[in-house]
Amino acid sequence: MRSLAYLFAALVSVLSLGSAAAQDPIVIRFSHVVSADAPKGRAALKFAELAAERTGGKVRVDVFPNSRLYGDKDEMAALFSGHVEMLAPSLSKFRVLRVTDFEVFDLPFLFSDIAAVHRVTQGEIGKAMLGKLEQSGVVGLAFWDNGFKQMSANKPLRTLKDLDGVSMRIQPSNVLDSTMKALGVRPRPLEFSEVYSSLKVGAVDGTEGPISNFYTQNLHRAQKYLTLSDHGYLGYAVITNKKFWSGLPADIRTALETALRDATVFANQAALDGNAAALEAVKASGQTEVIELTAQEKAAWRDAVESVYHSGVGGIPTDLLENVRKVAGHTLASDAR
Asked: Which CATH number fits the domain that encloses residue 37?
């Protein structure tokens, strides 16, 4: 009888462990390189909240900001190796997957406003671009805005003469490289996590990016001037490993997709609000002077970078470029000639 009692107790223990294991949530590690209070950081946290809610606690999203797990250079490899399940890299980074389409977003002065961006990212073109990632083992889930890029330095940047010879941090991108050279700037690719220290020690003179990144990374403590140039757009694509995503139960995938749709609405609004709030905070800090270009000054910048559109533009497919320009309503001075 005692043996039967031990056997029964052991069986109950095994069943209890099995039941507990069955209730363990699916864990998604979401890694990114910006601060938790930047628009992308806030959107990732919102997605985590919605994922838990929509799946009834069956999924837990752990968010790791500020390159805590992986930096720019390593995050894609981490996704493929299964060390993270989700990323939201900037669109410049997809060249490492041998998909050059996304560099179209690096083109200077391509979008006149955020509505023009959304006509591309939220339409058929954006859907097709995300779908193209599957050939590289990646599922593209959504586009998230950060906003329009501004340019900073420790001297005022208004004219092309001011830009001449300035060393500027950029993301690795053939299009960004060509754009900076067309403006007379010396481009220098650096990881995002290295920007603040590089500016402080003078390794580079300035940087480009949305104001929300400028403020949340404390770059206003390292740069005396910020020029509101709106010379380009910076956005992200939320991605996951195809094998991981395909292995999820269908109902979980559906729930996560709905969570992500709502998180995307939140993300894009957070970018608008975050950039507006960051601009006011930078002004209030008194540490960085904000420069607004005149229409004539901005036109000179636009004219200087027109050559980028006629130089092969980083291997971007010609038909894609023309479609994006058409949908965005983009024109060049040479179009009128």
From this structure: 3.40.190.170
